[in-house]
Every structure is written in C-alpha cells, then in structure tokens.
Amino acid sequence: MKDAFNVESSTVIPLWYYPDNRAQSIAFSNEEKIEALNIYFLSISCIDDYGVPDMYSLCNNVIDTIFITEEDIIDIITTKANNKAIGPDNIRQKILKNTVSTIVYFLTDH
Q1: Residue 21 DSSP SS3
Q2: What is the number of structural domains in the chain?
Q3: Which of 3, 35, 43 is nearest to 17 (CA)?
Q4: Backbone angles phi, psi at 101, to 5 degrees
Q5: How far apart are CA 20 and CA 90, in angstroms?
Q6: Higher pLDDT, 19 or 30
Q7: CA 95, CA 100: separation in Å to the nearest integer?
Q8: How far apart are the C-alpha atoms of 38 and 30, rounded to whole Å?
Q9: Residue 55 lies in a domain
Q10: Assigned domain for 32 exists
C-alpha cells in the first residue's frame, strides 16, 4: 500500500479526502484522517439486526455448580501417560501420579 501512495515511511498516513461534502475536503492530521476513514466506513457499512436470533433466549440452561469428586481426580491423573508434555505449572505427570493420594484433597470440592 505504501507504493500506491508513494510513502517512504510506514509512520506517515497519506493525505485522505473526506467522503462527504465538507468545507475542508482534505484531512491533514492523523486525527482528521482517522475521522475521514471512520466516516467512509460508516457510509458503506450496514448493520442489520433483523433476523438475528436472540442467543440469550436460546441458552436458558445454566450450570450453577460443578462438583468434582476425589474419584474423578484420581481417575484423570492415573490414566494419563507419563510421556506427555508438562503443562504451564511445570509439574510432570509422574510426580502427579506419585502424589495423587496427597494432592487429591486439595483439588476437589469438600
């Protein structure tokens, strides 16, 4: 796009004409250029909400609480393969498996 406007620097926004009939038809400052672009895009855009379903009325099922049991945690940890990559907590799967009986209490709802 720089070649189209013969612009040497990427920090310079080329002169821009206002798309409407204003007294000042050329935008010189960056703020004026932004406003001119905004006016242009608003003039060619059309937002039509007709026919868009109301998603809130379609999604009336809510999960208030989630209960995680000790058996759930033990099952998840013990069935994971040891060769899987560590997560963002940097804890290896083998360590989780070896300490599952100790940590399961802290990972569940009481």
Answers
A1: coil
A2: 2
A3: 35
A4: -65, -25
A5: 58
A6: 30
A7: 8
A8: 12
A9: no
A10: yes
Average pLDDT, the chain: 77
The two tokens of residue 89 are 């907590």
Residue 23: which domain range? 2-44
CA distance 16 to 38: 12
pTM (global) more than 0.85? no
Q: Give the tokens for residue 10.
A: 């990427």
From residue 34, alpha-carbon distances to 13, 21, 31, 38, 41 in Å are 9, 17, 5, 6, 11
Contact 24, 35 (CB under 8 A): no
Q: Is residue 31 part of a domain?
A: yes
The C-alpha atoms of residue 86 and residue 38 are separated, in whole angstroms, by: 47
Cβ atoms < 10 Å from Cβ of 13: 16
Has residue 74 been placed in a domain? yes
Question: How much is the average pLDDT of 45-70?
Answer: 74
Three-class secondary structure of residue 16 per DSSP: strand
